[in-house]
Amino acid sequence: MRSGGLSIRVPGDKSITQRALILGAMADGESRIAGALRGADPLATGRALAALGVEIDGLDAGEDQVVRIAGCGLRSWRSPSGTLDLENSGTGVRLLAGALAAQPLTAVLAGDESLSRRPMGRITGPLRRMGASIRYLERPGVLPFQIVGGGLNGIRHEGRVASAQVKSAILFAGVGGGVGVEVREPRRSRDHSERMLEGMGVEVVEGAAAEGWLVRVPEPPPRLSPLQMQVPGDFSSAAFFLAWAALVGCGDLLQLEAVGVNPTRTGLLPALARMGADVRVLGRRSEGGEAVGDLVVGGDGSALHAVTVGEDEIPGMVDEVPILAVLAARAEGVSRISGAGELRVKESDRLAALATNLRRIGVAVEEFDDGLEVEGTDAPLTGVVESFHDHRIAMAFGILGATPGCNIRIDDPGTTDVSFPGFWDLLGRVRTWWESMGHGTWRPGPGKRQPRSVAQDARASAVAGSAGCTVVAIDGSAGSGKSTTAAAVAGQLGYRHLDSGALYRAVTLGLLDADLAMAVETVTPADLEALDIAIEWRDAAMAVRMRGVRVPEEALRAARVTSEVSAVSALAPVREHLLELQRAAADGPGLVAEGRDMGTVVFPDAAVKIYLDAHPRERARRRIRQRGGSAGAAEIEEEARRLKDRDERDSSRSLAPLARAGDAVLLDTTHMDPRAQMEAVIRLVRSVEPSP
Ligand code: S3P
């Protein structure tokens, strides 16, 4: 890589992780999986397997921890006591159904709203023909359904669509049930299951057939050897950053390390090459039966050309069509994607979602039954994009939004967790790196406006607005890690730490003691004045003083204060009263200000604005741990519900609602430990510090 370059890693492959969990659970003995994806999809599959009696260790830890699966043999899972909820995961539910068909037990499979719309007949048809008994519980052809497995016979299946999920479900049922199976698909789909089964001692025969591709497991062995493998980075996740590199033209300065380049997955590469963005695969190697390499995008960012892709190419890039369509929006000419009807039954109807959103931001699109025509433009693209609860729609537009000349907001950024926890954080990092090298200025056509980049704006306000005190504003939802991160960052940088929550708690306590909290709406500025709230700085740490006396931490955290603070902090006189006090904290070399309106109201000119968020379940887990309680599934659900209610209340209040400032960097901390959170914030601060 050239000097000044950046090397990044994307999370583990979703398809391979899902298969490793299920096949590991069918093996004889302990499987060890390194680099497994901790996205919401595999976590849901892990929970379903645990409910089936399979012990899985390490899946709730960071991606650097090995996942151990105590495989209990081909047919010894136990009937679960409740419904198996696969949430958003099509791969999880379909592959698990295949494995369950061979198990002599009864299970009910269900999913979220999006998964409950997706077609299941494509797997239940062949599994029924193998002898599994399947009953749809609400509507034919969609989740939920009950499956009673065991006593299978072999089949030959002629698939109408190229689908690795269908193929894998049948292979897993055949291997689990000890019966031979054969699947013909019209075009070759991804072959991770075949490779992993071979590694576990199963003979898999495959090759081109008269029409399409044939895969056969003639005689499954009585047991599967456990897996020992390293999961490569997900090509489908890497594709977003390849596209970003192609759009901004950062040549071979951005390198994506250790990405899976299995040829049944990399169909996007030839299409990118035709658009003028050649991707080079460096250091090609093989890991655990899969090809792996480091990827760099060639080219100097000169205009991309329109591209045409047809049905033969779609199976090899089925998950990359959203990002391809987004690239087409910035290419010269009209791009045409056809033969992609399968996209209508993914996490959303992706063809409709792409057409709607592209039009919304100003791109001309025509939508067909099986594809799209997209007319490229170099006009500014702005607007709010609806993710339709689909991670790849959110990420595709997130990438476009992170390029000069675009101002795009995604309605539901958290949806990216399904396959790419930390996506926004990584995108923020990459973008900050690129802009810190003086890039990121839009090169528009004649007469077009020149938008400034976020980092340029941040740098300008860091230098101009704060009289030498660098303000870092950290806002975010309850339990997202604000306090811990803010304290750690302040400690590292030698900045003051403003805990604005402590001020609101002190006011609440003072009003409660004065018997005023019950009639909060009548509180006057004079009542607040009488409390005489002040901040006492001891080096960089703050304590709150009230009526001349230091308020102990325990008093601020008392349950009666906790239950009233939300109502008190929604009052206009209270917010007004504390505003100047908070602003006065910006003194000395720097201030880390933490709260809910730091970047929007109190310090709108902060040098760095960060908005922390995490999955409600993870936030609930942290809250319960903080209180020293035990985090069982029921407690977590209950607490998550409480947190969601509170978020809703805080975001909908008319005064200083909890909201991400338009120029704040979103940091999703779901899969980050406190140290990683601190490091991410410090990187952002460093990137805007004016050079000496
Ligand atoms: C997958 C197969 C593809 C793909 C999905 C993952 C898999 O679905 O879209 O994201 O892991 O087998 P289909 O098999 O339905 O095409």
Core attributes:
single chain; 692 residues; alpha/beta; 5-stranded parallel sheet; 4-stranded mixed sheet; binds shikimate-3-phosphate
Fold and architecture overview:
There is one protein chain. By secondary structure, this protein is an alpha/beta fold. 37% of the residues lie in helices and 22% in strands. Helix 9 packs parallel to helix 11 (391-401). Mean pLDDT is 90; it is low at 442-466. It binds shikimate-3-phosphate. Shikimate-3-phosphate is lined by residues 15, 91, 163-165, 168, 189-190, 318-319, 342.
Short description:
Helices cover about 35% and strands about 20% of the residues. It is an alpha/beta fold.
Q: Topology, please?
A:
Blueprint: E1 6-9, H1 14-26, E2 28-34, H2 40-51, E3 55-57, E4 67-72, E5 84-85, H3 90-101, E6 106-110, H4 121-129, E7 133-136, E8 145-148, E9 155-158, H5 164-177, E10 181-185, H6 192-199, E11 205-209, E12 212-217, E13 228-230, H7 235-248, E14 254-260, H8 268-275, E15 279-287, E16 290-297, E17 304-305, E18 308-309, H9 321-328, E19 331-332, E20 334-337, H10 350-361, E21 364-368, E22 371-375, E23 381-385, H11 391-401, E24 406-410, H12 423-436, H13 454-464, E25 470-476, H14 482-493, E26 496-499, H15 500-513, H16 525-531, E27 533-538, E28 541-546, E29 549-550, H17 553-556, H18 559-568, H19 572-583, E30 590-595, H20 598-602, E31 608-613, H21 616-626, H22 633-652, E32 665-668, H23 674-688
Parallel strand pairs: 1-14, 2-13, 5-6, 9-10, 17-19, 18-20, 23-24, 25-30, 25-31, 26-30, 31-32
Antiparallel strand pairs: 2-4, 3-4, 6-8, 7-8, 10-12, 11-12, 14-16, 15-16, 20-22, 21-22, 27-28, 28-29
The structure holds shikimate-3-phosphate (S3P).
Shikimate-3-phosphate binds next to helix 5.
